[in-house]
Amino acid sequence: GREGGKSDSNSNSKRRPPTTPTTSTTQPPLLVLDGAVFRAMAAHELLPLLPRIRVIANATHEDKLTLIRLLQQQGEVVVATGADSSSASLLREANVGVALARSGTDVAREAADIAILDDSFASITKGVLWGRTLRVNVQGFLVFQLTANLSALTLSFFGAVVGGREPLNVLQLLWLNLLMDTLGALALATLGTRPELMLRPPVPVAAPVVSKVMLKHIAIQSAYQLFWGFFIFFGLPRFTHRYSLTSRQVFYETECVVQVGNLGGNAATAAQFLCGVFLECGFPYGNQTVRESGACPLYNLTSLRIAAAALNSSYIVPAKLTRALCGGYDTKCDLYDTARSALGYLDRQVTHRNDKEMQKTTTLLLNAFIWSQWANEICARRVHDEMTIFHNLARNFFLLVVLVVTAVVQFVIIETPGLNSSFFKTVPLTWDQWIESIAIGLGTFVVSYSVRMSTRIWRRLQARRLARREAAAAAAAAAERRRKRAEQLMLKRAKAKLAAARAETERLAMEKQAKEAERMAAEEAAAAAAAAEEAIAEIEARDIEARRQAKEEEEKKEQQKRDERAKRDEVAALKGKSITSDHSVTTILVGASKDPEKARAAAMAAAAAAAGRKKKNPPGMEGGRGG
Asked: Taking every annotated instance into account, which residue ranges of this chain make up the domain Cation-transporting P-type ATPase C-terminal (predicted)?
């Protein structure tokens, strides 16, 4: 959205937690974040959430810059849109800046990479589609050109090195390069858009232009073209009579006399002799045995025999051409010069004849090679193993024009008299040769379909293998889970048994403790009973003792009472004599003051008398009386 846009008037009053739209898939849910929540999160917290974030409400300028930088750190290609001047930094920071040209400012348009004239998001989608289409078209052109270049270069190199002649001459290579560069670029670079390209995942920035799938098609198509190129160039002349070449020895055997005779002069005169030397004397054909026989014309020369005898040589015909033709001497002679001229002429004639015969092979090779490129140009439109090689072929006008022009020009190059032999060094082909070469070229479709189908089958097998691995892993995981559950169940049961055993042990211990407690209680009760019996016995003994003491006390008291009654009786007996007694007491006291013993006895008598009076007269009465 544009800078400063808001979706909620109260969104800045409080922070809202991330919300997740409702989804029925098993994949992680998408996220809607508030700008305040986004700002409050650290970078390491945001990175795992980036693939799931879809909306950041109330995002500030700094929030957008942060989001762009985080996405770029993850290797993503970021596209930013903007219209006002404040969006300029966003447009510059993003990998691709898109400005709204109609409603945007000049500052935003200058900072952007792309300007949308109608301010429509659909135009951005069209731009992405055209970008992907351009990339696919370039890749298709590279597949087409690299395949043709690799095949032509390899075929030309090995043909020149191994075969001794060029499979394709300069003008043929020029026509091939014109087809590959100019017409191929015109055909493949002008292909229209395909909506299915939008269904493909984005291409990483670091991804190479030539992908592994492209390398696969380049390698297989090049191998197919090289197979037929080598087979036609090396195999047909060797294994078929129609394209066979005249060997040098056969040419010498059949054409030597005629060709040497065409030289005229001394060569024409000595043609029969020279051809015999060439074929029988080992110059260049023949061997030592034939040379030393009558078949060699030099064997019967007298000069050679004389020279051999002079040199004491066991061979009459020397192995060196100079000595053989010049009388056994190394000095060159006219016959030697004539022989060398004849040999050179024969070699040139056999080479010329083979070149003429080889034109049938090279013409067939050129035709098959061009038709292979013609078919590969159609296959190169699909670089992602699509099976739709011919889909929408009729809608590509330039491609159809290029295909028609290529076929017509190829037919003209081969079948036009004068043009074919003088410039392109080709010969007219028969209808069966045309069918053979076109069939080889159209076999490119079969190879391409086979590669694509095998790739699809391989992917299905890989998917099945992966599915089996995943199923095996899932089964193993399920078995592991079952094993763990069984272990947990066994552990749970063991724990339950252990708990039951512990409970039983505790119960038995408690019963033992209870029995021990009962025993101790019984012992304590017995001890208490014994103690109680002892206490009772002691109490009874004490009671008996107390009763005995009480009885003794009572007896003492009774005795005291009896004593007291006796004393009272004594006092009562003395009461009648109270006056006399008082006087006597006084007299006794007075007298006792003089005699202590008498005084003590008098005091005791007075006390007894007083006690008797108290018993008879209570204190109140005595007081009353005294009062």
From this structure: 166-262, 357-448
